[in-house]
Amino acid sequence: MTVSRDPDAIHPFLRDASNLAGGAAEAVWLPQTEQEVIQVIETARQQGKQLTISGGKTGLVGGAVPTEGEGGWILSTERIRPALLVDEASTTITAGAGWRLFELREAAASHQLFLPPDPTEPTCTVGGMVATNASGAHTFRYGATRQWVQQLCVVLASGQRLRLNRGEVIANGTTAQLRTLEGSTIKLTFSELPIPSIKNASGYFLKSGMDLVDLFIGMEGTLGVVTEVTFRLIPTPNALLGGVIFFRSLEQLLRCASDIRSRSRNPNDWLNANILEFADWNALQLVREKFPAIPGDAFGGAIWIEQDLGSNADAQILEEWMELFQRHEAMIEESWFGEREQELVRMRGLRHAIPSSVYEFLTAHGQTKIGTDMAVPEDNFEELYNYYRQQFADSELATVTYGHVGDCHLHANMLLGGNHQLAHAKLVYDRLVAKAITLGGTVSAEHGIGKLKRGYLRQMLGTQAIESMRQVKQALDPDGLFGAGTLFEE
Ligand SMILES: Cc1cc2nc3c(=O)[nH]c(=O)nc-3n(C[C@H](O)[C@H](O)[C@H](O)COP(=O)(O)OP(=O)(O)OC[C@H]3O[C@@H](n4cnc5c(N)ncnc54)[C@H](O)[C@@H]3O)c2cc1C
What we know:
By secondary structure, this protein is of the alpha+beta class. It has 3 domains: 2-76, Uridine Diphospho-n-acetylenolpyruvylglucosamine Reductase, domain 2; 85-235, Uridine Diphospho-n-acetylenolpyruvylglucosamine Reductase, domain 3 (2-Layer Sandwich), CATH 3.30.465.10; 239-438, 3-Layer(aba) Sandwich (Vanillyl-alcohol Oxidase, Chain A, domain 3). Helices cover 32% and strands 21% of the residues. It is built from 14 helices and 20 strands. The chain has helices at 7-10, 34-47, 101-109, 126-132, 139-142, 213-216, 250-264, 281-287, 314-327, 341-365, 381-394, 422-438, 454-461, 463-476, and strands at 2-4, 27-30, 51-54, 73-76, 85-87, 92-96, 113-114, 149-155, 161-165, 175-179, 185-189, 225-232, 234-235, 239-247, 275-279, 301-309, 336-338, 368-371, 398-404, 409-416. The longest helix is centred in the last third of the chain and has 25 residues, at 341-365. The radius of gyration is 22 Å and the shape is globular. The site of flavin-adenine dinucleotide has 38 residues, from strand 3, helix 4, strand 12 and helix 10.
């Protein structure tokens, strides 16, 4: 196992993709096995050090970044990489915490299998995906990471291990018992959290009668170290239709998206999108140089769709899509459609280029951003988005909006030209969060709470719910070994 106390080696671990900076750590530990993770935990406890768990550092809320001042140690899981195991019989893949999402996808694909959860950044790790309950474009059809986790291995603050297989440890109402491999029993008592039944990554999953696997999915490195995960897989689709469809009018685009959403949920409809994503005009402008085929008058923005093909209904499916786009006055001639791998890769590339270009732009101009991660129930989506637009129009801020329109979940980013805009942008952001909560939404649908959104979590769930989460944390990590400053305000 490597441990480094050299500031130059520690430095890259003091930042994630949120650009949260200012943290400090005395050492970074890079265990390769579960046994070495236990060793780090025992040493940390003996020496009274807190541990921040770090994966691929692609997180957007600072969960992997140690707190300012006395940051303790970093435990990086990126080297926990025992051989990947694809089991065709049970259609599962088992991976150590340090494997990257793109590597899992490649391994699954070589067996004609597919892992649906897909946070847009493919270099995130297995541990990070589970710890944030990450989701992405495919969540529209297939749900978030949670739905695909079959088994988890977790090392607790006591150094004892849990092996949790979905379906095996179920809470009795709001009490539960966890049994470690070493033979200890941990009793949990909690209150249900008011979790909205929409895409959500805000706080612990605490539900009456819950499966205890779910407690560790979305816990953001505060309850233990995930060392190994078994995901369910599905067969790779025989063929796919992809489309990036441009619109002159945003109103037409939103009506079209709403139509696709409801038709895709109807099992008797030919139309069944796997993906329904959105980019506004400003987002398209940002990537125009990389993708010159974007039409110059797509003022309404674009949506990106994919649907499985490969049955004898393909002609009918294509006809239904074209009829839908015509009805909603899409720019059909200028839009991109394709079924070949090369064409699909270009469309996915466009979607990935948008958030990447935002980060590149900010880095190049020494700027920061504040971006939303709220989702609301479908009936309230247009009201929320119109509110965003009205707030942005009233402010002087440059904005770029894109994201998961299928899940009523957009990332509206305010790009800050300097610190003088920060206070104003925060004020606008506070209004957007308050509106989303009023509309029955969540303050984080996929990035999590980390160190940046703790106040909003309290605003959404209330003090009692935070106390229920604290009780669970106390039962599993009584000395606060893991994730200081994440989820909970000090
Ligand atoms: C360009 C870009 C696009 C993105 N798009 C999406 C998107 O569409 N959807 C989405 O959900 N996210 C998205 N993200 C955010 C990010 O990719 C996800 O949150 C990802 O799951 C984080 O994984 P990671 O390995 O990088 O974790 P890190 O950033 O290293 O850590 C994230 C959190 O997980 C904890 N953690 C990490 N590993 C472990 C472990 N082994 N055990 C316990 N806790 C652990 C950390 O303590 C921290 O709290 C995007 C990020 C970027 C940069």
